[in-house]
Amino acid sequence: MLWKLVDENYCYFEYKNIDWDYQYSVYKEKIFDSMSDEELFNVLSEMLSELKDGHVNLYSNFNQSRYWNWYLDYPSNFDEKILDEKYLGNDYYISGGLVSKLLKNNIGYIRYSSFSSVVDDDNLNFVLSKFSDTDGIIIDIRNNGGGYIYISDLIASRFIPEQYSDSTSIRVGYLKYKTGVEHDDFSDFYKVDLIPTKKENIKYQKKVVLVTNRLVYSAANDFAMKMKALPNVILMGDTTGGGGGVPILNELYNGWSVRYSANPMFDSEKKHTEFGIAPTYFVQMDTTNREFDSILESAIDYLSNKNK
């Protein structure tokens, strides 16, 4: 049942060149009548890992399967201790899920570590009012594994340039929907548009650097996709971890549940986002020097030089 459910609904078989029929033949041989629930769970988890998708999970009352190799083989490009000791110190604002501080060279810094940490219009108005006279803003979403996707739009809508303020929306991506049980049964492209924030809300029109690393995933990956489509925003750091498939959840007969990617997301150029969003400028952390964060320093230099 699990194999068939995934076979008819998972959205990346052809894009990832996965032979799902072959995986059935391999894992069917590992199933036997006398196996325990835990043994069965482990075999099914191994089969799901063949999809190489962090949005694919099997849930039971004793375990949850997960695929982590989308980031384990990559440099972390983030050191929270350096951030705390060399940049934030003990003098910063916490506004909902946003941590903010004015850095050197009159550059604003916003750290958002999880899209599960709620942010609202009041939080954003406060932070952006504090940074209204800055020469640029750094938004740091490194190690942000995702959460509520609506917050992606909420934040990104504050950085749409003024020339779009009277428009109903700006194109930031595309989505397809699964329409049948065959692996290539998809709808045409549906437009994904970003709507400008309400006129009474504070917007930021100067240059913005979004700082990313491999552990940016799911809703955070969606945010990176939308921000990269804005002309006043550049991405700096490493390619995000991806997670472009919109996941859904189904229950199996034995009470376990499975989550899988059902609808693929594409960027503004109609490119898949499942394997991540590439930065405008690749910058790696200098792991030999713990006196500074080389990605943050590059972002500060970029914004400082843009205003000379």
Structure notes:
This protein has 308 residues and is an alpha/beta fold. The protein has two domains: 2-70, 2-Layer Sandwich (Transcription Regulator spoIIAA); 77-160 and 197-241 and 276-306, Alpha-Beta Complex (2-enoyl-CoA Hydratase, Chain A, domain 1), CATH 3.90.226. Helices cover 27% and strands 20% of the residues. It has nine helices and twelve strands. The strands form two sheets. The protein has a seven-stranded mixed beta sheet with strand order 2-3-4-5-8-9-12, sandwiched between helices. Strands 1, 6, 7, 10 and 11 form a five-stranded antiparallel beta sheet that branches. Helix 6 links the parallel strand 4 (107-112) and strand 5 (137-140). Helix 7 packs parallel to helix 8 (219-228). The longest helix has 13 residues, at 37-49.
Major beta sheet summary: 7 strands, mixed
Mean pLDDT: 95
Beta-strand segment tally: 12
Helix content: 25-40%
Strand order of the largest sheet: 2-3-4-5-8-9-12
Kindly provide the name of the CATH class of the largest domain: Alpha Beta
Q: Could you list the spans in which at least 5 consecutive residues all have pLDDT below 50?
A: none
Overall geometry: globular
H/E element sequence: HHHEHHEEEHEHEEEHEEEEH
Question: What characteristics describe this protein?
Answer:
single chain, 308 residues, alpha/beta, Transcription Regulator spoIIAA, 2-enoyl-CoA Hydratase, Chain A, domain 1, 7-stranded mixed β-sheet, 5-stranded antiparallel β-sheet, 12 strands, 27% helix, globular
